[in-house]
Amino acid sequence: MASQNGNHNKALVVVQLSGGNDTLNTVVPFNNGLYHDFRQKVRLDTSKVHPISDDLAFNPSMGPVKRLWDEGNVAVINGIGYPNPNRSHFRSMDIWHTAMPDDIGRDGWLGLATRELDPTGDNVLTAVNFGRGLPRALSVRGVPVASVGNLETYGLFPDVQDEVMRKYALEAFSQMYGGQGKDNVMEFLGQTGRDALKGADILRTAPAQYESTVEYAANPIAQSLKSVAQVLFADLGTRIFYTQHGSFDTHSGEIVSHAKLWDEVAGGIGDFYDDLREHGRENDVAILVFSEFGRRIKDNGSGTDHGSGGTAFVIGGEVNGGLYGDYPSIESHMQLEGDLHFNNDFRMTYATLLDRWFKVDSEPIVNGQFEHFDFLPA
């Protein structure tokens, strides 16, 4: 279905659930007695979950996502992961960010996608990150990416309008942080810094152009998604948006903290989708929600430890909603050392988004050929 507003380019919004989201308490096997046996304390009241099949249900705090599921706009990818899962936050996230499970990757998959979408680098806002730092997924040398903490106040030296003064400002940075290698720092900061400043100038115009009846919650993920909407609706040519929320590292007190986290994430996504719909843009955007790994099948006191076999979501107006990938068995003889087994490589989901959504060749980005899911039309 075409956008109601005309020929807008497709955009991808990535929401990273940092820390390792608990699969069993997100997409819940609520009718499986083993779930209740293995989760002595960290189990949900199954009378309050949101059923999506005879066997599976969404967490009680995922009401807005369930609403979108009922409309056919949510694909649930069960059992997502990779062979020989790594339970280190840093290594597992690095694998997801570089699409290289077996080697140490240098380039981020979304950074490479950004270069494919804008090979001449004409638009310094092809990719924008909302949050602190720059995720490895967006990092490729020579590919500018704007990283925004607060869109309302964004901009490095916003009062410095003159290019000469900006050059002096960048030189000051090189003096402060470069040491003996300040020339190399200056060389790197030169174009990259000017690109960042140029992007800042443009991004600061987005909030003033934004009108919406949607009221986003006053939490970080909801406000980041509001910023995504502001930039998207300003038609600045941004194709990739990235943000994250957490921590989903629920080693203790999980029932309360996990509910709060999903209330914030699901609420933010629900508001963002309503904003897309209000502006006739729901068919222009796909939302990918992922986490670096799941958590162990058995609880450990009031929490759960690092595991594998996670769940991801793809949400959007052109998404063919439904269940993709088999839900991993929790029977004892089917477990992976107490964890869920993965049954589909995360690069299948990446390849589907790259090939079918962005129409770019996924193979050099995800380092191989991978079968597509049908959550997007071919």
How would you characterize this protein structure?
The chain has 378 residues and is an alpha/beta fold. Helices cover 34% and strands 14% of the residues. The longest helix has 25 residues. The strands form 2 sheets. Strands 1, 5, 6, 7, 8, 9, 10, 11 and 12 form a 9-stranded mixed sheet that branches. Strands 2-4-3 form a 3-stranded antiparallel sheet. β3 and β4 form a beta hairpin. The protein has a domain of 219 residues. It has 11 helices and 12 strands.
Set out the fold topology.
Elements: E1 11-17, E2 27-28, H1 33-38, E3 50-51, E4 57-58, H2 63-70, E5 74-81, H3 89-98, H4 109-117, E6 127-130, E7 146-148, H5 163-178, H6 182-203, H7 206-209, H8 220-233, E8 240-245, H9 254-278, E9 285-291, E10 310-316, E11 322-324, E12 344-345, H10 346-357, H11 363-366
Provide tags for this entry.
nine-stranded mixed beta sheet, three-stranded antiparallel beta sheet, 34% helix, 378 residues, disordered N terminus, alpha/beta, single chain, 11 helices
Short description:
The protein is an alpha/beta fold and 378 residues long. It contains eleven helices and twelve strands.
Describe the main β-sheet briefly. 9 strands, mixed
Instruction: Note the beta-strand portion.
Output: 5-15%
What is the global morphology?
globular
Question: In total, how many beta strands?
Answer: 12
Radius of gyration over C-alpha positions, nearest whole angstrom: 21 Å
Distance between the termini: 13 Å
Helix content: 25-40%
Average pLDDT value? 89
